[in-house]
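Protocol step 4 of 6.
Sequence for DUF6534 domain-containing protein (Mycena albidolilacea) entered exactly as in the expression construct, tag removed. Do not edit the line below.
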Amino acid sequence: MSFNADMVLGALLVGTWANSILYTIEIVQAAYYYRHFKQDIWMLKLLVSSAIAFDSVSMIANYTGVYLPDSLYVFTTGVVGALAQSFLAGRYWRLNKFITPTLFFFITVAIGGAFASGATLAIFPEYKDRKKVIIPATTWLITAAVTDISIAVALLLEFRKVKSSFKETKGLLNRLVTQTVQTGAAGATVALAILVAFLAKKESNISTGIGYCIGHVYCITMLANLNSRKAGKTWSGNDTSSGAITQLRDERGNQERGGGGDEYGGIHVHRTAVVHTDTPQEFNVGLFKTKRLPDDSPAVEMEMIVNDSASYSSKNKQDLC
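Step 5 output, structure tokens:
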């Protein structure tokens, strides 16, 4: 095969341009996150910071890869993808704890394929040895795409179980469905594009140029999910549930229980209880109002009045997926 500068060097150059643009978007998203969600739990902050740090190393490796063979970007991109996918799988865990281990299995296989691909490229850096990386690279990219699609489908199936007459809940559900489809489609599309480009012409660097972008895509989608919350809503250290996911989970739980509500950070049913006792004075404790009754009245009489209205909790006790 004759040397084609456009396919070998030009693809890498274009890849670094796209890499720079996406990294700028990522940094803007990260700055917004750190500015508006300072109270998120430390584990979430660690995950976000780790993803950005690994992606920054990957960006530098992408630039050096234009001049020198460098498999570092493959290792770092695999880690970034695993972190972003673990974040999304963690959201699903709040809704379904039985299927989530399967998602984490896919994530493990994907990062294993990425590491195997990076190791193969490090041992055999020559273009003539590109065929040696076909199996690990195919395993990595296909599993990554399957993971993205599986998480999106799993979330959509859970969202479909929620039925509500509340306008706020319907709006929230539509937003989450759109967000889930976009998140799953972004990573899967880039992963499949890399695979197709690689299998179509293994000697070119078109697949590598596209691969320069996938880590940034994962980081941007993860940060977009985090920043879609209202400013001030945070992950609490007492409960790591997402406000959006918790709202839908509570809504579905209320339906299964035939009402009830859960005043826990999201959409809930307000409870107002009136307790009648024969105590000598009237006092209020929260929503419970106790009034004095005649001496010949029953010892205790409780009346529960349920106000069927849903709203976002103004206290924002718990938030996140």
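Step 6, annotate. Residues 236-243, 259-321 have pLDDT under 50 and may be disordered.
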